[in-house]
Structure formats: C-alpha cells, structure tokens
Design the sequence.
C-alpha cells in the first residue's frame, strides 16, 4: 500500500508470570506490516497471554513491546489503535448489530453523519448488512462471529488481533470462514495476529507463524519452513496430523542405525557419532521389500487414506497409505525409511541436525 | 382418569388448600384494615361487630386532609425514601463495579459486613446513632435520617449489584477498552444497560425498606422529619385509639408499597433468588 506501511510489532524479551507460574518466558517476535501472523501452540502454551499483552489487556513483568517503533509496553488498550476479535466474540448483548459495529466509531468521536455509512460498509464486507437491526442474541454463531469481525474492521485499526475466532463454528463453516478471513485481511492491508491451536488453520492462513510450547517460542517461520524443517523435536512432535514418527537411533558417519537396521544417508551430517532421534512423517514412509520389517498392529481408515499403526520392535509408528494394499492386522509389513525425507535431531538437546 | 392423573389431581387440591390457608393468614389483617377503615369509629367498637354496615369514606378524608392529616408525612416519607434510593444507586453501582472487577483485599469483608448489618438487632444500633446524630446536630433532619438509612441500604445494594455485575464477561469490557472507551464510558454504555434488572431490584428493595422503616424514624426523627409510619401513631393516644382513621392511614401508606410490589413482582422474585442461587460462590 503506502510506502510507510503500518503495523510492525516487535516483542523483546517478554516475560509474564501469574504468581509463581511462568506463563511466558523470554518471548522475542518481529511481526512485519500487513503480515498474517499466527500464534500456534497447544492449550495453555501462552498464546492468548501474548495476544493480550499486545492488546494492552495485560502488562508484562519484563520486556518491551514496540508498535511501529514506539514503545507501547504499558500504553492503555485504547491508545494502541488495535481491534480484537475475542473467542466468545464479546458482542454487546443490549445493543443492535448496528450499534455494536458503531460503538468503536462513537468512542473514537467520529462525526455522527459519517458513522452510518462506515457501519454499512463494514457490514457489507462480511455480508451481514441484512442483520443490522437484530440483537446478538438473535444471531447464529457464524453470524455473531461476522458481527465481531465487522466491529473490529470498522475503525480500520493498525493491528487486528484474533483469538481463536473460528473455534465456536462447526467444521463446515470454519472452512468457509477461513478462506474469507484470509481474503478480508488481504483487502484491508492490515497486520493480523491470529491465535489458534489448530495447525491446519495456522498453516492455511498464516504468512508466518510462531510455535508456542510451555510459554516459550519454539520456532518462527513460514508454514512451509515449520512443516518441512522443524528446528526441535518438540515442534516436530507437534506439527502434522498425525505428527512425525520419532524414533531413537544412533548416528555414525553416514549411517543411521534404527532398531538394528541401518539407513544410509547421502552425506555425513556435521556432527560426531552418537545417539540421535530420527523423525519421519507418516506420509513419507513407504511399503517396500527392502524396508524394515514391522508388525501391523491396527489400521485406521480415514477415507482418502489409511493410517497403519506398526510396531518396529517395541516402538509404535504410523504410516499413511494412499495406495491400495491388502494388509491384515498381525501381518509383517516392510517399511522403507527414505533417506531423503528423514529428519535428524540431537537426542540430548533436541535440536535439529541439518544435513544438506 | 388413571392412577397417576388422580394422584396429580389430589396433589393439586392439597397444594391449593394449604396455599389458601397460608394466604388467608397473610391477608386477614389487610381485610380487617379495609373493613375497619370503612366504618365509623363508633361502629368499630360495637360489640358484637356489625357484619353489615354503611361504608363511609370519611376516614380517608380525615386521614388525608383532617386535623391529623398524614399528607405532610407522606411527603416526608417520599423525600426520605426517594433520596435514600437515588443516593444508594448512585453510590452502589460504581462501588459494586469496583468490587466485581478489581482485585480488592476488602472483597471478602464486604460480604461479612453485609451480613453483619442484616444480623445486628436494629435496636442495638438506635442508641449509638442517636448519640452520634445528637452530637453533630443532625437529629430530626433529612440528612441525618437519609445517612442512617444509607448505612443499611448501601452494603445490601452493593452486595446485590455485585452478583449481577460478576455475570458480565470481562471480555465485553476489554472489547470496549480496545474500542477506546474509558472506564466510565464502559460502565455507562456496557455495564449499566446490562444490569438494569439488578438496578430495578435494588431500587425496589431499598425504597420499600426506607418507606416501611419505623424504629429509626421514631427515634431519630421528630417534628420536622416525621415519616408516615410514625405519623400514623397520631391516631393512637392515651385517651383513645381512632381505629378507623388509623386503618385508613395505614392503607394509604401501604399504597406505594402495593403498587411497587405489583409493578416489580418479577424483579422482586428474581432479587430474592439471586442471592440463593449465587450465594454459594461468595463469602
Ligand atoms: N489470569 C491468570 N491467572 C493465572 N494463570 C493464568 C492466567 N491467565 C493465564 N494463565 C495461565 O497461563 C498459561 C497460558 O495461558 P493462555 O491463556 O495464554 O494459554 P493459551 O495458549 O491461550 O491456551 P488455550 O489454547 O487453551 O486458549 C496457562 O497455563 C494458564 O493457566
Ligand atoms: Mg487461549
């Protein structure tokens, strides 16, 4: 849009404790203007806390928050020019949809004559212009969610925060709204920070994302980077559905030994011999006569594919199978680990061992 | 009719009978007052009582505009009750908001203080209040009476309002803050409209309590501030009791109570149950 794009958010060393519980520890983030940035992590990992800090609804115990180069760490929420969509939408039940959407403009002392056109425009953007006279209690969950969106965009804020906005919708509606949300953000040219525990949502929506775990950021990157190059075992164990298989192994030069079977890598990773963890996605495993024999324990039929639960020694692994094949539970299936598609992690530190 | 229907019918009959009996106990004094207020003073004392008599409106006339007119006292009661109610609401709403939202150390003791004010026998407080008001020269003044009433109504009103305000999700306020609303604007635009029901309940209870109050009124009031509950006693003297006029005055004084009771029926029931339902969560 304009040369000096707005909505650059920087968090430096943010720490937040509740009593003796450390909810956020040393959070560093840089979110670029007009970026769609997702905060992804399991329940209780600190995503909402981070968002509330950015919104000014909570203040950190340590660290700095900058928006467009200005220190905003302790600025009250109203001075931040931020709009937020809450998980439960937080619509004002005693006001009509029209008044709900108009409220931010009224508080912003927008001229009376200019409020209504803006309200209608925001409502049209999310296609609820026919609901303006209703009250939130008379709307479906999906419609309420759109009202919350309209109320957030009507003021054209610098920053757009969304806390699991789709989690109260049914699966069908969630998929539809996801696409619309992305389009909306593109058209508005606004920075969006989006909290979710649904990795598919984060992957499809986000330009970049941060993976949270136990109050720390484990990795920041594009969805592709995070999916294809998880930097730690914990990210590897979280991303993907089902996530990667992780198996203990030993590394010596080019060869990885796994449950007594060895896999030859194309080149030797730059690290001394020792214990490692091998990671491989269920979809990257293949049935091949040259593979490691595994006993089929249980087959899950997912419709488009099947998920084979296999035992290699004592270790349970999952393999996604899209092609047909007749396997009965109890059969021995040869599983091929493709050297190209395995990930290596240091068994001690849990860090990725890069090998390219 | 099968067995279940018969049982249900029997239950209804029993229930109705018990309810009617209880109701009779409650309304009997009222019926008596209505009957007496329509008799002449002589008829009231007639023995055996006359079941049939010519009703007269004279007592109402006397009670309102006669020598012992209670009209000025009705005005006094209205002033005291209305002022108490208005002040209570103006002070209790923001106070309850603070108690509902802020992490205050005094939060627990509020509950205790409220209960304490409801449990202390009022007689025990009359003398201290009398001495205090006497010392500052506020005996028989509106400000004195209203202040004393506030000491009872405020804790009660705050306690009642807190339970309504705690029901409003915090996110709703936070959304308002992000929309650049100040605390006061949030209270005005977001909180108060949503607790209108609670405010109505509080208004009803506080007004009725103040209107019906007698003990403090009789001790701390006087010729300037003489609420209607006290003024009624003009019809009771050493020489005689003017029963018919007393009954008429009592019925007139009851009128606002009945009107408010009917108008606010729904709110009153809600107000009585809110403490019962929510009481467990608060000490
Ligand atoms: N006000 C609070 N007081 C005490 N602990 C809190 C408070 N708010 C959050 N926490 C704790 O901080 C941790 C992080 O909470 P947060 O709400 O940020 O999680 P989240 O990642 O948003 O999880 P979810 O996906 O379940 O919403 C949790 O363990 C939570 O219990
Ligand atoms: Mg959350």
Sequence:
């Amino acid at each position: 849009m304009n040369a000096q794009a707005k909505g650059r958010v920087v968090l430096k060393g943010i720490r937040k404790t509740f009593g003796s519980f450390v909810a956020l520890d040393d959070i560093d983030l840089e979110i670029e203007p007009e970026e769609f940035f997702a905060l992804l992590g399991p329940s209780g990992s600190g995503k909402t806390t981070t968002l509330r800090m950015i919104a000014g609804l909570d203040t950190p115990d340590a660290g700095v928050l900058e928006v467009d180069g200005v220190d905003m760490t302790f600025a009250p929420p109203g001075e931040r020019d931020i709009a937020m969509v809450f998980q439960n939408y937080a619509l004002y039940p005693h006001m009509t949809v029209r008044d709900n959407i108009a409220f931010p403009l009224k508080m912003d002392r927008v001229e009376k004559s200019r409020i209504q056109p803006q309200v209608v425009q925001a409502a049209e953007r999310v296609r609820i212009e026919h609901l303006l006279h209703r009250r939130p209690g008379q709307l479906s969950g999906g419609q309420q969610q759109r009202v919350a969106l309209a109320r957030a965009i009507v003021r054209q804020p610098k920053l757009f925060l969304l806390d699991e906005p789709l989690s109260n919708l049914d699966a069908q509606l969630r998929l539809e709204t996801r696409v619309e949300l992305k389009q909306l953000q593109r058209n508005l040219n606004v920075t969006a920070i989006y909290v979710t525990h649904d990795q598919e949502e984060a992957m499809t929506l986000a330009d970049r994302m941060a993976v949270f775990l136990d109050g720390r950021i484990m990795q920041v990157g594009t969805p592709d980077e995070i999916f294809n190059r998880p930097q730690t075992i914990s990210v590897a164990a979280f991303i993907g559905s089902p996530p990667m298989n992780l198996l203990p192994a030993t590394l010596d030069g080019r060869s990885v030994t796994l449950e007594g079977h060895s896999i030859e890598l194309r080149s030797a990773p730059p690290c001394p011999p020792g214990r490692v963890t091998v990671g491989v996605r269920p979809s990257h495993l293949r049935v091949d006569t040259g593979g490691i024999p595994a006993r089929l324990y249980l087959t899950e039929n997912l419709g488009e594919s099947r998920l084979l639960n296999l035992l290699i020694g004592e270790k349970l692994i999952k393999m996604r199978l899209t092609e047909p094949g007749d396997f009965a539970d109890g059969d021995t299936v040869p599983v091929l680990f493709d050297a190209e598609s395995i990930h290596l992690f240091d068994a001690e530190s849990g860090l990725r061992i890069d090998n390219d | 009719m099968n067995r279940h229907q018969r049982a249900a019918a029997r239950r209804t009959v029993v229930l109705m009978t018990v309810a009617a009996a209880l109701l009779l106990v409650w309304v009997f004094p009222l019926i008596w007052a209505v009957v007496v207020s329509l008799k002449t003073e002589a008829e009231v004392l007639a023995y055996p009582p006359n079941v049939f008599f010519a009703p007269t409106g004279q007592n109402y006339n006397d009670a309102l505009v006669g020598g012992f007119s209670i009209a000025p006292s009705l005005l006094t009661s209205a002033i005291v009750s209305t002022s108490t109610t208005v002040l209570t609401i103006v002070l209790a709403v923001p106070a309850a908001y603070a108690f509902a939202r802020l992490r205050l150390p005094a939060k627990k003791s509020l509950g205790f203080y409220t209960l304490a004010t409801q449990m202390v026998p009022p007689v025990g407080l009359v003398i201290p209040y009398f001495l205090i008001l006497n010392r500052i020269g506020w005996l028989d003044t509106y400000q004195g009476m209203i202040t004393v009433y506030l000491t009872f109504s405020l804790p009660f009103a705050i306690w009642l309002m807190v339970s309504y305000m705690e029901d409003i999700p915090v996110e709703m306020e936070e959304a308002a803050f992000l929309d650049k609303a100040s605390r006061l604007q949030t209270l005005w635009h977001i909180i108060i409209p949503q607790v209108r029901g609670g405010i109505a309940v509080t208004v009803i209870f506080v007004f009725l309590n103040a209107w019906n109050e007698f003990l403090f009124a009789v001790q701390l009031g006087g010729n300037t501030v003489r609420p209607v509950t006290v003024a009624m006693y003009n019809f009771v003297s050493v020489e005689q009791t003017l029963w018919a006029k007393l009954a008429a005055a009592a019925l007139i004084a009851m009128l606002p109570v009945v009107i408010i009771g009917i108008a606010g029926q729904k709110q009153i029931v809600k107000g009585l149950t809110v403490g019962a339902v929510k009481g467990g969560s608060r000490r």
